[in-house]
Amino acid sequence: MQHLLKDAGLWREAAYINGAWLTETPHGRCALHNPADGALLAELPRCREDETRRAIEAAHVALGPWRRTTAKVRGEILRRWYDLMVQHREDLATLITLEEGKPLAEARGEVDYAAGFMRWFSEEATRVRGDVIPSVKDTQRIVALREPIGVCAAITPWNFPAAMITRKAGPALAAGCTMVVKPASQTPLTALALAELAERAGVPAGVFSVITGNDTRAIGGELTSHPLVRKITFTGSTEVGRVLLAQAAQTVKKCSMELGGNAPFIVFDDADLDAAADGVMAAKFRNTGESCIGANRVLVQAGVYDALAARIVERVAKLRVGNGLEEGVNLGPLIDAGGVEKVEEHVADALAKGARLLHGGRRHALGGHFYEPTVLADATPAMRVASEETFGPVMPLFRFDTEDEAIAMANDTEFGLAAYLYSLDAARIWRCAARIESGMVGINCGLMSNEVAPFGGIKQSGLGREGSHLGIDEYVEVKYLCWDGLEAV
Ligand SMILES: NC(=O)C1=CN([C@@H]2O[C@H](COP(=O)(O)OP(=O)(O)OC[C@H]3O[C@@H](n4cnc5c(N)ncnc54)[C@H](OP(=O)(O)O)[C@@H]3O)[C@@H](O)[C@H]2O)C=CC1
Ligand SMILES: O=C(O)CCCC(=O)O
């Protein structure tokens, strides 16, 4: 598959530790398969505790020189990394499609999104300012410095193999931290191509390392327990987030957690229905529904329920399912057999409890990990689609009568990541946006991820924010200096 890349140097089947490519470990190799056709893509060295420890120690050694490098120079290096990502956009997109499955057009969009974090944080590097605070004594001066927290460990998911790394590495390196990344074992190739580009951009050895292999607990255990690691940043399921928080508590590490969601997409009677139908298509079917901010529950006011359902079905019927490398494909495969089974179970449960099938509802004729885009009407809170993240191309339509009912349904979940509101009544929008329990609210907008905005959740959807000017706060500590014995001025 290497032949599909214009620059074969971006295809790496090795871990990247302390600026060197590690092709062998004593623990053998693990196979990586294309989710679209099951073909063997690569064989990666299996890292365990030893290799992870070496990467952490290298990150510790690299920390001093990196944090002393001026913010301007760190920003320039990150800018070069951004430029290289843009230059190699097509190859990065191909790698993403090969290992994750998303259509090439979406993969290109992810590269732009991922590179955006590098550009944004290359600029933010020079804006990590401290404070001078009026003191309580005339002989004292009080200064608050913002210093890099130190060695960071990032554990990232497969659904956005590039963006979930740059959203973490960009701010960490900009702030002067070093980072060890454990990408999802299903999508290491994109992470390794990013490491190759980091090296070409001039990121020094040890500042950014990538661990490979599927000995997940061994690697995760080392990252979360090693005393030199001062920060854990994770994107993935709430279940694993809880485990990592508990492990990191033993050495009191700072943690950022981007966890699961159960996003409500609320459409009121006064919405622009065509805009709402377009918005929900983006919010649901982006990445074949495998996104934590994907619309999991579509709540529609009774007066427009049938009209909106008709518009949605018309659009869904035009979606083309297939290998993401093929032209014109809108939905790729799900990541693995487990993903397809979960979708099947959710649909079967909903149908057994009275949902009406408006479209799809079964595995796609292509077989493998392909599932038909599915629309279910008459969904109710008793169904699994109401309480669990489906993470697939299934859109359940719930019905509500009043605004209060919609808000109560929206908030009836332990998650609080994203929510969407469609209405043309500004007063209602302000009211509902205030009452919804979520970290992000899309208003007449189905796609709200970008590098300038603070991404993150409340409740059991996580801790901290990524992107925006706030994103860098996760990688700095405040140090307060109290200087006494000075002349009063
Ligand atoms: N919020 C989000 O963005 C995401 C949410 N999910 C949700 O989670 C469900 C399951 O997906 P899944 O991929 O299993 O998500 P996980 O949360 O299991 O995986 C995310 C990352 O965490 C790693 N990981 C898993 N267990 C541990 C551990 N004990 N210690 C350290 N690292 C660990 C994984 O490694 P490895 O790949 O080696 O297992 C991967 O790098 C999905 O169906 C979806 O509902 C999934 C992905 C992203
Ligand atoms: O599923 C996730 O956790 C990542 C969402 C991608 C994004 O929109 O930033």
Automatic annotation (TrEMBL):
Active site residues of this protein: E258
Keyword field: Oxidoreductase
SUPFAM superfamilies xrefs: ALDH-like
Domain of life: Bacteria
Signal peptide span: none
Keyword Oxidoreductase listed: yes
GO molecular function: oxidoreductase activity
PROSITE patterns associated with the record: ALDEHYDE_DEHYDR_CYS, ALDEHYDE_DEHYDR_GLU
Enzyme class: oxidoreductase
InterPro entries registered for this protein in UniProt: Ald_DH/histidinol_DH (IPR016161), Ald_DH_C (IPR016163), Ald_DH_CS_CYS (IPR016160), Ald_DH_CS_GLU (IPR029510), Ald_DH_N (IPR016162), Aldehyde_DH_dom (IPR015590), Aldehyde_DH_Superfamily (IPR050740), Succ_semiAld_DH (IPR010102)
The EC number(s) this enzyme carries: 1.2.1.-
Domain Aldehyde dehydrogenase: 26-480
Family statement: Belongs to the aldehyde dehydrogenase family.
Name of the protein: NAD-dependent succinate-semialdehyde dehydrogenase
Biological source species: Ideonella margarita
